[in-house]
Specification:
The chain is of the alpha+beta class. It contains 22 helices and 22 strands. A seven-stranded antiparallel β-sheet has the order 18-15-17-16-20-21-19. The chain has a five-stranded antiparallel β-sheet with strand order 8-9-13-11-12. Strand 8 and strand 9 form a beta hairpin. The protein starts with 17 loop residues before the first helix and ends in a 5-residue tail after the last strand. The relative contact order is 0.13.
């Protein structure tokens, strides 16, 4: 088949079109008639203290990375800010919420999370943490040969780049960034430009294996501490960053395949493949920042997996550079030639090699999309509806369910309107409330909501699926909430992660974690996990009530991905990270007790590694773990890829945060 080679990368759009492009991509070609950003509104706000310093992002070679925060999630131009008058707004112009005032936002955090908005917890300065970074440990012989080979696009030893590449986004790591430091940082960051560069980088590491180790780096969005550098390893630590490998190498429309370099992000993939009228369809919550190689390494899942599959479904082949050489096996959809070895690298978390190129299944860009929302009397009613929809084989691209606390939080993110628009929405909201409570008899303290998205090429199929879903929902007490809440529910996905940075400013730390649980265990699992976290908070002396909620994010024939959110006020806690970690670990024990898996798509890293040794079928059996270790030792006998994830090799890490300075 003829491969269509894309033109030179042009996906880094001019600055004045960034907002339009992002809104178009994030909303899947939604027209943004109501999503325009008021440029005037931002200039009218009173002075405020921003949590983001402008002096970061000055030395990092990669342009996209220069725009991200050094001590929080996402881009430096985007954050939730509270002003002296209590108004909260979202800065920047990247998202539909950007530039908007959120009048109910403050009350949600005060009422539901017991935040004291008069008590701020300011982070250390960027200059302060740079002073705490140790000098790099260098292997001169390796670096000299690397320089002679010229097998990289960029190489850097500066503190800012090393800091970025030495951590991920778990709550423990963000705590250290704000209030402490790390005991060990990567020593050098190398940006290869192609597969051949990576091959040479790894070959040289094999030659100097006693002096060099490698940690692969994709989007850096991990929440499992997988990027933390083992403190017990005194070799030069190289971070191999794939960001400059961000091209689509070819597109084969006849056979519906494409080859993506490992550094292509979700947004890059959408934008580049759209030029050919096709899509990958993989949209994790970290869509803007996470990369193709990272999806393989963590065995990722996206919100639209119903239609497009998880990474193990759409990945046909991967080139992985290992100490033994380069692995790849051809682009066949299926073959019977022994075990499918690409599954060794799906979920390998950087312990076996560097993913460089991936051949993936692609799909025609859908011509028609329809969003919807449904309100249910209870969480179990919503679960029953999802079960029937899935069993009937209706298959929307995505259908998610949030509990009452999540539902309330979503309502707090409504923007402020003025004049006639405000009066109209107030009237509509009052009418909706009356229908829910008076007509349908629902309790506002127990209602929950589902959102769904249907993508097809035939509008009649779209309409039929929507009708079928709403008919099933009605049988379970569901009320059609309309298209707009469904649309907003999906678009809000990309700003939710910014909420943690806002909360940290007011002594509130929070995290998410997920599991795969059978259908018949959903209710008992979510109840027991919530009860366990609340009880453990009380035992630990947490004075304010914890914030605990959950949602169903993906559904399968046999069960669902259950996603939990948990947060506590830590102003009166002497050792916040230890207390938080203890409660979080207890929740995972409860998940395993009630039939859940250790993880659905986040992975293990070093955060969840202790469970790898417990001989639990919800994690891995003892013979299974022994097999993993033997595979690791066979492929990487010198532990060149020595990040210590999944407990395959020893990795000492520690949390260093000075609570007295919080």
């Amino acid at each position: 088949p003829q491969h269509l080679s894309p033109p030179p990368p042009t996906h880094k759009m001019p600055e004045d079109t960034n907002q339009q492009r992002r809104l178009r991509i994030l909303s899947n070609h939604l027209k943004d008639e109501n999503g325009s950003i008021s440029k005037e509104i931002c200039s009218k706000f009173p002075p405020f203290h921003s949590n983001v310093e402008d002096n970061s992002g000055t030395k990092i070679p990669n342009g996209e990375q220069r725009s991200v925060k050094w001590n929080g999630w996402g881009y430096r131009d985007t954050e939730f800010l509270m002003h002296a008058n209590g108004d909260v707004h979202v800065t920047g112009d990247r998202y539909p919420l950007s530039g908007k005032i959120l009048p109910k936002f403050r009350n949600f955090w005060v009422d539901e999370c017991e935040l004291d908005i008069q008590n701020q917890s300011m982070p250390q300065s960027f200059a302060d943490i740079l002073k705490k970074i140790h000098k790099p440990r260098l292997c001169k012989e390796y670096l000299d040969e690397l320089e002679r080979e010229k097998c990289y696009k960029y190489i850097t030893f500066d503190e800012e780049s090393r800091l970025l590449h030495s951590r991920g986004h778990s709550v423990q790591e963000i705590f250290q960034l704000r209030y402490g430091h790390f005991n060990r940082y990567v020593d050098v960051v190398i940006y290869p430009d192609c597969h051949e560069h990576v091959e040479k980088i790894v070959q040289l590491a094999v030659k100097y294996s006693k002096q060099v180790m490698i940690i692969p780096y994709g989007g850096g969005t991990t929440v499992t501490q997988s990027l933390l550098v083992p403190e017990n390893d005194d070799r030069m630590v190289i971070s191999v960053d794939t960001h400059e490998m961000n091209r689509v190498l070819w597109v084969d429309k006849k056979n519906m395949m494409a080859c993506l370099q490992a550094g292509v992000t979700g947004m890059d993939a959408y934008d580049l493949l759209e030029q050919y009228g096709v899509t990958l369809g993989h949209e994790p919550d970290s869509y803007e920042l996470s990369t193709m190689g990272g999806w393989v390494a963590t065995r990722a899942s996206g919100m639209k997996k119903n239609k497009y599959g998880n990474v193990e479904d759409f990945l046909l082949d991967a080139k992985v550079v290992t100490p033994m050489g380069t692995f790849h096996q051809g682009n066949h959809e299926r073959k019977s030639t022994g075990p499918d070895l690409k599954h060794l690298f799906l979920g390998s978390e950087g312990t076996l090699g560097v993913v460089t190129e991936c051949v993936v299944r692609i799909f025609d860009m859908p011509k028609h999309k329809k969003y919807g929302s449904i309100v249910f009397p209870s969480f179990q009613d919503g679960v029953d509806c999802l079960y029937e929809v899935h069993k009937a084989g209706i298959v929307p691209a995505c259908m998610r369910l949030v509990d009452n606390v999540n539902f309330t939080m979503g309502a707090s993110l409504k923007e402020k309107l003025g004049g006639v628009a405000h009066a109209k929405r107030a009237m509509v909201d009052a009418l909706k409330k009356a229908i829910l409570t008076k007509v349908k008899g629902m309790d506002l303290h127990s209602v929950c909501a589902a959102t769904f998205l249907i993508e097809e090429n035939d509008i009649e199929v779209v309409n039929k699926k929507q009708q079928q879903i709403l008919e099933i929902a009605k049988r379970h007490g569901g009320l059609d909430g309309g298209e707009e809440p469904g649309k907003q529910g999906f678009l809000l996905t990309y700003v939710i992660a910014y909420l943690r940075d806002f909360a940290f400013q007011y002594y509130f730390m929070c995290e998410s974690f997920e599991t795969n649980v059978p259908w018949d265990k959903i209710d008992v699992c979510q109840k027991r996990v919530k009860e366990r976290m609340i009880a453990d908070c009380k035992k630990a002396g947490v004075k304010q009530k914890p914030w605990v909620c959950c949602r169903v994010s993906q559904a399968y024939q046999t069960g669902v991905c259950l996603y939990f959110y948990f947060g506590i006020v830590f102003s009166d806690i002497q050792d916040p990270v230890s207390v938080f970690s203890m409660i979080e670990e207890g929740a995972r024990d409860e998940i395993l007790l009630y039939g859940g898996s250790l993880s659905h798509h986040h992975g293990v890293g070093k955060l969840r590694r202790k469970w790898m040794l417990e001989d639990n079928p919800g994690v891995i059996t003892k013979p299974g773990f022994n097999m993993l270790q033997k595979i690791k030792n066979a492929i990487d006998r010198d532990n060149i890829f020595g990040n210590g994830n999944m407990n395959l090799t020893e990795a000492k890490i520690s949390v260093v945060g000075d609570s007295s300075k919080i």
